Every structure is written in structure tokens, then in C-alpha cells.
Amino acid sequence: MLRILPAVALLALWVWAFIDCLTTPEDEIRHLPKVVWIIVVLFFPLVGSIAWLVAGRDRTSARRRGVPWPAGPTAGFPEYERPQARRVVAPDDDPEFLASLKKDNQRHEEMLQQWEADLRRREEELRRGEDPEGGAKG
Question: How far is 65 from 44, CA to CA, in rounded Å?
């Protein structure tokens, strides 16, 4: 197990450095052209990866953008940088939404009471032998 650990760590470092080198924009690369850095990292896994991490990428421009090295606790997360008034409130915390639910519930209760009253009236008419359409049975 201890023999495999350094090999796995080297492989992980190499893969990460290679992918980072491939995805880094051309304007953030220092000292050598991007193609040369890719070749160095690809053919010299340990030395090339360490060289890429130390000297290949300009990390100061990444800090200014907020990606992938956040400059502050909310860097890179624009939803935390929005003004408080524009934040989206969860429905169960929104008083307007809760009030609209209460109004809908009242309207539905009233409609249900009307339907029940109409149903009782029609049942009563049927018991008395009247035609629900307005005429008497005969």
C-alpha cells in the first residue's frame, strides 16, 4: 500500500497539472507558450507538473477574477454579492405568498360551501318529488 501511494499521488498531480495547463487561457500563462507548457507537463510528469504549478500560470489574474482562487469569503459566488432587496425569498418566508395562499384558501372554502348548499338544495328537491329542472314529476 505504501509503495502505491507515491505513484497515485504523482499520477494525480500530473493529471491535475495537465488539465489545468490545457484549460488555462493564453493570457494567464507565463514564461513559455501554452503549447510548450503542455509538452513539458506531458513528457516530464513530476518536473513538468511542479514547474507548471510554480512558474507556468499567472495566479494573480485568477485572484482578481475570483476563480479558482477566491479573494474573499464570497468571491466567485455572485448570489452573495447581490443587494439584499433583490435576494429571492423562499416561499415559506415570503409574507405576500403566504397571504395569497390564505386568500386562495378562503375563496376555495366559499366555493365549496356554495357547492354543498346547491347539492343540499337539489337533494331536497328530489326528496319532495320535484323535477330539478323546474317542473313537477308526473
Answer: 30
Closest CA to 41 of 24, 60, 62, 20: 20
Q: What's the pLDDT tens digit per position in 47-68?
A: 888 888 888 777 665 555 555 5
Cα 39–43–44 angle (5° rounding)? 110
pTM of the model: 0.42
Written in H, E and C, the secondary structure of the chain is CCCHHHHHHHHHHHHHHHHHHHHCCHHHECCCCHHHHHHHHHHCHHHHHHHHHHHHECHHHHHHHCCCCCCCCCCCCHHHHCCHHHCCCCHHHCHHHHHHHHHHHHHHHHHHHHHHHHHHHHHHHHHCCECCCCCECC
Report yes or no: 56 and 25 within 8 Å, Cβ to Cβ.
no
